[in-house]
């Protein structure tokens, strides 16, 4: 059995409006669903990556999709309820996630803009 060790830093790429909400309010399911748009939210939860370049690419995509500016957020991975992918829970390389039921554990000020 492999033991999961959380990384020191994780990143999340998004648009400026969503970044402001995450910084000011933390994670919550209402904002998460609203930001997802027509495709709906990713059922596994709030995705982060250990690769800053990946977060920058996502930020550019989200900003072009939603308007606003591209923003990369950073957090201490050891302070987050992170989950890796597992059988039946597909993730991209370097992707981790915070499950929707764990959103209340990620309050204001946990993520900051880099």
Task: Name the strands of the widest sheet in spatial order.
Answer: 1-3-5
Distance from first to last alpha carbon:
35 Å
How helical, in percent, are the residues? 25-40%
Q: Which regions have little confidence, pLDDT < 50, spanning 5+ residues?
A: none
Say what the CATH topology is: ADP-ribosylation fold
Name the CATH architecture: Alpha-Beta Barrel
Give the amount of beta strand, in percent. Answer: 15-25%
Total number of helices: 3
The CATH first-level class comes to: Alpha Beta
- Tell me about the largest β-sheet: 3 strands, antiparallel
SSE string, helices as H and strands as E: EHHEHEEE
Tell me, rounded to a whole number, the average pLDDT: 92
Total separate domains: 1
Number of strands: 5
Per the principal axes of the C-alpha atoms, what is the gross shape?
globular
Radius of gyration: 13 Å
SS class: alpha+beta
């Amino acid at each position: 059995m492999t033991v999961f060790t959380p990384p020191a830093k994780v990143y999340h790429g998004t648009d400026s409006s969503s970044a402001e909400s995450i910084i000011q309010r933390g994670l919550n399911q209402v904002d998460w669903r609203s930001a997802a748009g027509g495709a709906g939210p990713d059922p596994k939860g709030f995705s982060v990556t250990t690769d800053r370049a990946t977060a920058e690419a996502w930020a550019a995509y989200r900003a072009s999709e939603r308007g606003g500016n591209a923003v990369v957020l950073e957090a201490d991975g050891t302070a987050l309820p992170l989950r890796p992918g597992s059988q039946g829970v597909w993730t991209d390389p370097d992707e981790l996630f915070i499950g929707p039921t764990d959103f209340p554990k990620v309050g204001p000020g946990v993520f900051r803009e880099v």
